[in-house]
Design goal:
The chain is mainly α. Helices cover 46% and strands 4% of the residues. It has one domain. Strands 1-2 form a two-stranded antiparallel ribbon.
Protein backbone atom coordinates (compact mmCIF):
# COMPACT_ATOMS: atom_id res chain seq x y z
CA UNK A 1 0.00 0.00 0.00
CA UNK A 2 1.35 3.43 -0.92
CA UNK A 3 0.52 6.47 1.18
CA UNK A 4 0.87 10.15 0.48
CA UNK A 5 3.53 11.72 2.67
CA UNK A 6 3.71 15.49 3.20
CA UNK A 7 2.57 16.41 -0.30
CA UNK A 8 4.64 13.67 -1.96
CA UNK A 9 4.25 10.02 -2.82
CA UNK A 10 5.66 7.23 -0.70
CA UNK A 11 6.98 4.12 -2.36
CA UNK A 12 9.16 5.93 -4.88
CA UNK A 13 6.39 6.50 -7.40
CA UNK A 14 5.27 9.83 -8.76
CA UNK A 15 1.74 10.64 -9.84
CA UNK A 16 1.00 10.33 -13.57
CA UNK A 17 2.47 13.15 -15.62
CA UNK A 18 0.23 16.02 -16.60
CA UNK A 19 -0.95 16.22 -20.23
CA UNK A 20 1.21 18.12 -22.71
CA UNK A 21 1.96 21.73 -21.72
CA UNK A 22 -0.11 23.04 -24.63
CA UNK A 23 -3.25 21.33 -23.32
CA UNK A 24 -5.05 24.52 -22.26
CA UNK A 25 -4.94 26.37 -25.60
CA UNK A 26 -5.46 23.17 -27.55
CA UNK A 27 -8.54 22.18 -25.56
CA UNK A 28 -10.47 25.16 -26.88
CA UNK A 29 -9.90 24.04 -30.48
CA UNK A 30 -9.85 20.28 -29.90
CA UNK A 31 -13.61 19.69 -29.86
CA UNK A 32 -14.18 21.38 -33.23
CA UNK A 33 -11.20 19.46 -34.61
CA UNK A 34 -12.58 16.19 -33.24
CA UNK A 35 -15.99 16.90 -34.78
CA UNK A 36 -14.28 17.66 -38.10
CA UNK A 37 -12.28 14.43 -38.03
CA UNK A 38 -15.04 11.98 -37.07
CA UNK A 39 -16.71 11.63 -40.51
CA UNK A 40 -13.49 11.10 -42.46
CA UNK A 41 -11.28 9.46 -39.82
CA UNK A 42 -13.67 7.89 -37.33
CA UNK A 43 -13.91 4.55 -39.13
CA UNK A 44 -10.33 3.75 -38.07
CA UNK A 45 -9.83 6.17 -35.16
CA UNK A 46 -12.84 5.27 -32.96
CA UNK A 47 -12.32 2.41 -30.55
CA UNK A 48 -16.08 1.92 -30.21
CA UNK A 49 -16.42 0.77 -33.83
CA UNK A 50 -15.61 -2.69 -35.20
CA UNK A 51 -13.76 -1.02 -38.09
CA UNK A 52 -11.18 0.55 -35.74
CA UNK A 53 -7.56 -0.23 -36.59
CA UNK A 54 -5.04 -0.78 -33.78
CA UNK A 55 -2.37 1.27 -35.57
CA UNK A 56 -4.75 4.17 -36.05
CA UNK A 57 -5.90 4.01 -32.43
CA UNK A 58 -2.28 4.12 -31.30
CA UNK A 59 -2.01 7.55 -32.96
CA UNK A 60 -5.33 8.92 -31.68
CA UNK A 61 -8.72 7.68 -30.56
CA UNK A 62 -11.58 10.09 -31.16
CA UNK A 63 -13.60 8.51 -28.32
CA UNK A 64 -11.02 9.39 -25.64
CA UNK A 65 -10.59 12.63 -23.68
CA UNK A 66 -8.33 14.21 -24.60
CA UNK A 67 -8.41 12.41 -27.93
CA UNK A 68 -5.13 13.95 -29.12
CA UNK A 69 -2.87 13.16 -26.15
CA UNK A 70 -1.21 10.16 -27.85
CA UNK A 71 -0.29 12.03 -31.05
CA UNK A 72 3.47 12.41 -31.27
CA UNK A 73 4.88 15.73 -32.43
CA UNK A 74 6.17 14.21 -35.67
CA UNK A 75 2.68 12.87 -36.52
CA UNK A 76 0.96 16.26 -36.78
CA UNK A 77 2.31 16.89 -40.29
CA UNK A 78 0.78 13.61 -41.45
CA UNK A 79 -2.53 14.52 -39.84
CA UNK A 80 -2.55 17.90 -41.60
CA UNK A 81 -1.57 16.33 -44.93
CA UNK A 82 -4.42 13.82 -44.73
CA UNK A 83 -6.94 16.46 -43.65
CA UNK A 84 -5.93 18.89 -46.41
CA UNK A 85 -6.16 16.10 -48.99
CA UNK A 86 -9.59 14.88 -47.90
CA UNK A 87 -12.62 15.76 -49.96
CA UNK A 88 -14.80 14.55 -47.05
CA UNK A 89 -13.76 17.42 -44.77
CA UNK A 90 -15.23 20.89 -45.38
CA UNK A 91 -12.84 23.83 -45.70
CA UNK A 92 -13.96 25.40 -42.40
CA UNK A 93 -13.39 22.07 -40.66
CA UNK A 94 -9.94 21.80 -42.24
CA UNK A 95 -9.22 25.25 -40.83
CA UNK A 96 -10.39 24.08 -37.39
CA UNK A 97 -7.94 21.16 -37.48
CA UNK A 98 -5.14 23.50 -38.58
CA UNK A 99 -6.01 25.88 -35.71
CA UNK A 100 -5.93 22.98 -33.26
CA UNK A 101 -2.54 21.75 -34.51
CA UNK A 102 -1.12 25.27 -34.31
CA UNK A 103 -2.37 25.56 -30.71
CA UNK A 104 -0.95 22.22 -29.62
CA UNK A 105 2.39 22.95 -31.28
CA UNK A 106 2.68 26.49 -29.94
CA UNK A 107 5.84 26.74 -27.86
CA UNK A 108 5.40 27.77 -24.26
CA UNK A 109 6.05 31.44 -23.66
CA UNK A 110 8.90 32.37 -21.27
CA UNK A 111 6.32 33.37 -18.64
CA UNK A 112 4.49 30.02 -18.73
CA UNK A 113 5.54 27.44 -16.21
CA UNK A 114 6.49 23.97 -17.46
Amino acid sequence: MTATVAGGWAGGRSPAPAPKAAAAPATAASEHARDALVPACGTCHRSDLPTAKPGALAVFDLTKDPWWITIKDEQYDGLLRRVKGSSEIADDDKAAVETFVAAIRRPASPTEEP
